[in-house]
Design brief:
about 200 residues; mainly alpha; Four Helix Bundle (Hemerythrin (Met), subunit A); 8 helices
Length: about 200
């Protein structure tokens, strides 16, 4: 988180030279952090798949209790937010600062909608007794979704910083590494959710 915060707050000539050295959008150090995050989620997904294979009947019977329709809505919300983030990057590259802020704000609002819907789903889960101590499926489901929930919250904090910096005029068509860094992290969070949704909600 500190690495990302430092990057999105940075502005100046270094941005231009960095963009010229790498094909990856944003800061290289943040990409290392993103790959580390993906590795953690990957390990959790593999552990879930192995547990499911060993307890297929339990996982199938518990999975039907999940709000699959709500999960689909949240998936569409995050996919839409990714488009907003992508358009924000395109806007700042065209030096359309207000457009960039508008798209970033839209992504932030969609992220907030995701968290609100997921919080409602957690409330429903609690009402039907879906707790960590319930069984192995519940433990994996709640751990994975809450871990991702916190990553969405972190992504929103990062985008908030980028919106502030954009408002202060710290980004332009020539210098916008912070925008691309936030965009890369946001896309990572969205990708993880899509995999999580298919693996936990859909695969049966």
């Amino acid at each position: 988180m500190n690495t990302i915060a430092l990057t999105v707050n940075a502005a100046g000539p270094a941005d231009q030279s960095r963009e010229g050295r790498t094909a990856l959008p944003g800061d290289l150090a943040v990409w290392i952090f993103i790959f580390a995050e993906l590795l953690v989620f990957g390990v959790l997904f593999v552990a879930y798949a192995l547990a499911r294979r060993s307890h297929i009947e339990l996982f199938n019977s518990e999975q039907v209790l999940l709000d699959r329709q709500g999960g689909l809505v949240n998936t569409l919300v995050l996919i839409s937010s990714s488009f907003c983030i992508a358009y924000a990057g395109a806007a700042i590259r065209a030096n359309r600062v207000r457009g960039c802020m508008a798209w970033l704000g839209s992504a932030w609002l969609l992220g907030a909608l995701f968290l609100a819907l997921k919080a409602m789903e957690f409330s429903h889960d609690a009402a039907i007794g879906m707790q960590l101590s319930r069984n192995l499926f519940a433990m994996f489901y709640l751990a994975l979704t809450f871990f991702h929930f916190m990553h969405v919250l972190m992504a929103m904090v990062i985008v908030s910083v980028v919106i502030r910096n954009t408002w202060l005029g710290r980004y332009s068509a020539a210098h916008h590494t912070g925008v691309e860094t936030a965009s890369s992290y946001w896309h990572m969070v969205d990708l993880v959710w899509i995999i999580l949704f298919v693996l936990v909600y859909v695969l049966h």
